[in-house]
Amino acid sequence: MTSHQIDSKTSDPRPPPNLNETKVRKAISAMKGLGISPEVVKPVLKNLLQLYDGNWELIEEENYRTLADAIFESLDDKKSIAGGSTSSNMNTVIRKKRRQNVQVDDDMVSASKLTSQGVQLDNSSSNSFVKRNPKFHNDSDITRGTEKIKIPIIDEIGLEPPKFLYIPQNISYQNAYVPFSLDRISDDSCCLKCRGDCLSLRVPCACSGETGGEFAYTSQGLLKVDFLNACISMNIEPQNHHLFHCQDCPLEKVMNVHNPEPCKGHLLRKFIKECWRKCGCTMDCGNRVVQRGPTRKLQVFSTKGKGWAVRSAEYLPKGSFICEYVGEILTNTELYKRNKQSRKNERHTYPVYLDADWGSEQVLKDEEALCLDATHFGNVARFINHRCFDSNLIEIPVEVETPDHHYYHIAFFTKRNVDPYEELTWDYGIDFEDVNHPIKAFECQCGSPYCRDVKRKG
After folding, report:
1. What is the pLDDT of residue 359?
2. What pLDDT score was predicted for residue 239?
3. Strand residues in 124-180 grouped as ranges (E)
4. CA-CA distance, 311 to 375, in Å (whole number)?
5. Does the reported pTM lie above 0.90?
6. Which residues fall in a compositionally biased region of kind Basic and acidic residues (predicted)?
7. CATH for the 21-102 domain, from 1.10.8, 1.10.10, 1.10.3470, 1.20.1250
8. Are 376 and 348 in contact (CB under 8 A)?
9. Average model confidence (pLDDT) for the chain?
10. Where in the chain are the domains?
11. Residue 165 forms beta bridges with which residues?
């Protein structure tokens, strides 16, 4: 963008009334770098705030791009800002923007038709009409810059903005025992002597031990087909695989301390072991996929009936890593108490139990019976909706900074090829008939022909 020194003797130098002075100063400072004087910025800013009903987010996003566009767009009008009436020119700009807003609904219908037909939309153009309508809440980056990629949130129906704090990594709540220590990782379970990319080695290093002596990833960063299919088979037919039973099950004990029911069994799942800081390889190593964070073009978007959802703006091949499920690390007891104390009508994101090693000990300590809750603190995964049986994502445990299976990372991978703008879903594993579950099962609206919510289907 070319800098222009713009001034106006006719503009009112006083700040517009009822404005946040701190935000005004920041906007003036940003425009000063483009050579635009404060006398010009203030009346333009006032008109934009009137247009956007005082929504500063629409003005501040992308380094005040909307404000700069409004100023420079008026330069091409019949009169230049430097020599004419600023308010007259701004009225022209506002009329143009209002005409664009009138076309929003038609653009949405066209966009939804293209998406349903599998036509890939340009990411920038598909978001532009949403940003210009102050009726809708939109954010160019829901991660607030904490991830390597931007993840926009797009509201196309006027849904209430989500209330939570985005975090890129798990955080411990109070009593959860998660010891991250290099000393606890033995030399036999890491690759001290490796250099560069471990996937390029003729013989897989020690970090491949958790996956049977072979790495789970391909050189393209995808899950190997055999490994992925084995994980899918476990989820589809758990009765055909090994289930371990706790002698003193944390799930049953927390609901009835004095007379807990017998453990219903936990699935012994396949693991991915990634290289970590104690290894000699670099962060570019092909066995460090999950810890590098999401890299796909994800979007959070509003739906009718299911709240917020997640989709990708690009094609996703089978075995693609999407994101980790991030939230607060709680003990099973802490989560149960939290849900009992919360308001009955308060909506929760469904908890994830880290139960990979619950059956290996006779009695598991409460601080080691861990779970994740993304209600108040979480990442993009908290918006991924449930779908019974035929979801397109699968969750797989990933071991990174601790050898204990009491705590691990939950990573989402695609079970099949996923088309652009197709909603991403995963099976929460909910028993809709379990009335004793700490979280009351919601009415499933997944739309799957294999939906397990029998009452809902009836």
Report:
1. 67
2. 60
3. 138-139, 153-154, 165-166, 171-172
4. 20
5. no
6. 1-12
7. 1.10.8
8. no
9. 77
10. 21-102, 166-457
11. 377
Beta-sheet pairing, 385-386 with 423-426: parallel
Q: How far apart are CA 317 and CA 290, in angstroms?
A: 16
Same fold, 21-102 and 166-457: no
For 195, the 3-state DSSP assignment is coil
The structure tokens listed for 78 are: 């019949």
CA 191/CA 275 separation, integer angstroms:
7
- The structure tokens listed for 109 are 């219908």
Q: Hey, what amino acid is at 190? A: C
Neighbours of 187 (CB within 10 A): 10
Residue 164 identity (one-letter amino acid):
F
Per-residue pLDDT, averaged over 269-289, amounts to 93
Taking phi over 0 as left and psi of -120 to 50 as alpha, with beta for the rest, 104 belongs to: alpha
| The residue to which tokens 């770098």 are assigned | 33
Q: Is 451 left (phi over 0), alpha (psi -120 to 50) or beta?
A: beta
* pLDDT tens digits, one per residue of 62-105: 677 778 777 766 544 434 334 444 444 444 444 444 444 333 33
Backbone angles phi, psi at 234, to 5 degrees: -60, -40
Q: What distance in Å separates the CA atoms of residue 78 and residue 89, rounded to the nearest whole number?
A: 8
CA 211/CA 216 separation, integer angstroms: 6
Please report where in the chains the tokens 């978007």 appear, as a residue. Answer: 301
Q: Are 333 and 254 in contact (CB under 8 A)?
A: yes
Question: Which tokens belong to 347?
Answer: 């909506």
Which of 68, 93, 48 is CA-nearest to residue 6? 68
Q: Which tokens belong to 154? A: 């797009």
H or E element in which residue 58 lies: helix 56-75
CA distance 179 to 164: 26
Q: Residue holding tokens 């954010």?
A: 139
Written as six digits, the tokens of 263 are 């453990």
Q: What is the DSSP letter of 121?
A: P
Q: Return d(Cα 449, Cα 238) in angstroms, integer.
A: 20
Closest CA to 134 of 35, 69, 227, 58: 58
Tell me if residue 439 falls in helix, strand or coil: coil
Rounded Cα distance, 113 and 344, in Å: 39
Q: Which range among 18-22, 294-298, 323-327, 354-358 shows the weakest confidence by mean pLDDT?
A: 18-22
From start to end of 198-255, where are the E strands? 243-244
Distance CA 191, CA 204 (A): 10
CATH topology of domain 166-457: Beta-clip-like (2.170.270)
pLDDT in tens, 294-350: 999 999 999 988 899 999 999 999 999 999 999 999 998 888 888 777 655 455 566
